[in-house]
Design brief:
Number of domains: 3
Order of helices and strands: HHHHHHHHHHH
Low-confidence stretches: none
CATH topology of the largest domain: Receptor-associated Protein
Number of strands: 0
Helix content: over 70%
Shape: flat
CATH architecture of the largest domain: Up-down Bundle
Strand content: under 5%
Structural class: mainly alpha
């Protein structure tokens, strides 16, 4: 089948789907993506033809299909990014919890159990390690699987450090403290970078959403009185609508730039 040949062109797709918590196989995922992309491309071409009566719109079908295919293909990556945000908000607190548990003499297995009960997003991955061990998988093998399937680099470093400590017989809590200190420093750097980005964004917001609409409206009113152009109420509603769109756009940009940390 064609979708099986396409799936072979993406050798890392199986791992990506596993990290995104998508239970479909690569063949099934490609098949679904192909179908949805085809349906969307046909719909856009037909709707465009009905409105414009231009047959040449169908010539853009391959491009529309290709764009749609790669857009839906990246759904798994988008889901991984969303999972990463949730993990980043809890990783520091979960790490401190784990270190306190281990320093108190609690075994690694029980520490993982306790952590999984107290943290919604990070706890899922520690709970999976516990479940694998309960099914008879050795702790080292369960941690190795967690390293491979974890969508977060920070979480992957934690599991990797615990795995190395268990293999070498060294103290787990001390090694984890160094890892979490590094994670905290990296998150603090992201927060500082976000603060630096806010200054130019705030300036552009003031210009595009406040100064230009207000002064521009006043200038249009003054010019209309000299030129003798009647400005209808609809025109002002259009200006208000555009201003709202600009403000929502800036709000979306600021939210997208905000680092997913909670220190």
């Amino acid at each position: 089948m064609l979708h099986k040949l396409v799936a072979k062109q993406f050798p890392n797709l199986r791992l990506t789907l596993a990290q995104a918590r998508i239970t479909e196989t690569p063949d099934e995922y490609i098949k679904k993506t192909t179908f949805v992309s085809m349906l969307l491309a046909i719909s856009i071409s037909v709707v465009g033809f009905l409105f414009t009566k231009n047959v040449f719109l169908f010539l853009a079908f391959p491009l529309t299909y290709a764009v749609s295919f790669f857009y839906f293909l990246n759904t798994a990556q988008a889901k991984i990014a969303a999972i990463n945000k949730d993990i980043s908000k809890e990783i520091v607190f979960a790490g401190r919890f784990l270190i306190i548990e281990l320093e108190s003499g609690v075994p690694v297995y029980e520490s993982f159990q306790n952590l999984s009960k107290n943290y919604e997003h990070v706890g899922k991955y520690f709970s999976e390690v516990v479940d694998r061990v309960d099914l008879g998988t050795p702790m080292e093998e369960a941690l190795n699987e967690a390293v491979q399937l974890s969508p977060s680099n920070d979480l992957r470093r934690i599991f990797w450090q615990v795995l190395n400590s268990l293999k070498t017989g060294s103290e787990v809590a001390g090694a984890l403290s160094n890892v979490f200190d590094q994670i905290v420093r990296e998150q603090q750097i992201r927060v500082k970078e976000y603060g630096r980005k806010l200054n130019p964004l705030a300036m552009f917001y003031m210009m595009a959403a406040i100064i230009i609409p207000s002064l521009g409206t006043i200038m249009l009113i003054v010019l209309s009185t000299f030129i003798g152009i009647n400005m209808s109420l609809v025109f002002f509603f259009i200006i208000i609508g555009l201003n709202i769109i600009v403000q929502l756009l800036f709000l979306a940009i600021i939210r997208a730039q905000r680092p997913p940390v909670d220190i």
